[in-house]
TrEMBL record:
<dbReference type="InterPro" id="IPR013805">
    <property type="entry name" value="GrpE_CC"/>
</dbReference>
<dbReference type="InterPro" id="IPR000740">
    <property type="entry name" value="GrpE"/>
</dbReference>
<comment type="function">
    <text>Participates actively in the response to hyperosmotic and heat shock by preventing the aggregation of stress-denatured proteins, in association with DnaK and GrpE. It is the nucleotide exchange factor for DnaK and may function as a thermosensor. Unfolded proteins bind initially to DnaJ; upon interaction with the DnaJ-bound protein, DnaK hydrolyzes its bound ATP, resulting in the formation of a stable complex. GrpE releases ADP from DnaK; ATP binding to DnaK triggers the release of the substrate protein, thus completing the reaction cycle.</text>
</comment>
<feature type="compositionally biased region" description="Low complexity">
    <location>
        <begin position="34"/>
        <end position="45"/>
    </location>
</feature>
<dbReference type="InterPro" id="IPR009012">
    <property type="entry name" value="GrpE_head"/>
</dbReference>
<keyword id="KW-0963">Cytoplasm</keyword>
<keyword id="KW-0175">Coiled coil</keyword>
<protein>
    <recommendedName>
        <fullName>Protein GrpE</fullName>
    </recommendedName>
</protein>
<feature type="compositionally biased region" description="Acidic residues">
    <location>
        <begin position="212"/>
        <end position="223"/>
    </location>
</feature>
<comment type="subunit">
    <text>Homodimer.</text>
</comment>
<feature type="compositionally biased region" description="Acidic residues">
    <location>
        <begin position="1"/>
        <end position="12"/>
    </location>
</feature>
<comment type="similarity">
    <text>Belongs to the GrpE family.</text>
</comment>
<feature type="region of interest" description="Disordered">
    <location>
        <begin position="191"/>
        <end position="223"/>
    </location>
</feature>
<keyword id="KW-0346">Stress response</keyword>
<keyword id="KW-0143">Chaperone</keyword>
<feature type="coiled-coil region">
    <location>
        <begin position="58"/>
        <end position="92"/>
    </location>
</feature>
<feature type="region of interest" description="Disordered">
    <location>
        <begin position="1"/>
        <end position="45"/>
    </location>
</feature>
Length: 223
């Protein structure tokens, strides 16, 4: 029978874990190498994320500022257009009111003109008439219409018509009532008598140009 040698029956127990952990002493060194090789720092990554968020907020603020600036510019343009429109309407209303007032005074001015032509504008009546004419002139009323000027249907109203051999175009030969305007606006056309060239009559210039050579030389030669 075989004898067992005392002291060799049990195998020595080996610790299941080393003092360096399950991964062994090389794992911690590998982590140190990886971090040294450029692994991201958590604090730096958090800073980058915060910077990106701030940039996004800044972009939103800039976009909102641009929108508000555009709205303000649009409102300012609308206000300027409104002011110009109100000013234009105000001037138009004023011109219409002045034109209506002066139109009602035209018969009085016609009476003053006829009295002046007949020598009846004397004394206190003359002073009042001249004062009235001064006032309406300051309000912008202007008189127009003179004898001898060409007839213009835009500013003249022909009440009488005749023919004359000494005119080359339709001409105002008599002013029956003067016309009046305010600026470029005619409130009453000048009422006139017009004369046209005689039908079939040859203008003086053409008649002189049409003289025969014999007439220019004093007549035909006598043989």
């Amino acid at each position: 029978m075989t004898e067992e040698t005392p002291g060799f029956d049990e195998q020595p127990e080996v610790p299941s874990s080393s003092p360096f952990g399950e991964e062994g002493p090389g794992t911690e060194a590998a982590d140190d190498v990886a971090q040294a090789a450029g692994s991201p720092d958590p604090a730096a990554a958090a800073g980058d994320i915060q910077q990106v968020g701030l940039q996004a907020q800044l972009d939103q603020v800039r976009m909102a500022l641009n929108e508000r600036t555009a709205d303000l510019q649009r409102l300012q343009a609308e206000y300027q257009n409104y002011r110009r429109r109100v000013e234009r309407d105000r001037i138009t209303v004023k011109e219409v009111a002045v034109a209506n007032l002066l139109t009602d005074l035209l018969p009085v001015l016609d009476d003053i003109g006829r009295a002046r032509e007949h020598g009846e504008l004397v004394g206190g009546f003359k002073s009042v008439a001249e004062s009235l004419e001064t006032v309406v002139a300051k309000m912008g009323l202007m008189q127009f219409g003179k004898e001898g000027e060409p007839f213009d249907p835009l500013v003249h109203e022909a009440l009488m018509h005749s023919y004359a051999p000494d005119v080359t175009e339709t001409t105002c030969v008599s002013i029956l009532q003067p016309g009046y305007r305010i600026g470029e606006r005619t409130i009453r056309p000048a009422r006139v008598a017009v004369a046209e060239p005689q039908p079939g009559a040859q203008p003086k210039g053409e008649a002189q140009d049409g003289a025969t050579p014999d007439e220019e030389n004093g007549g035909p030669e006598q043989g």
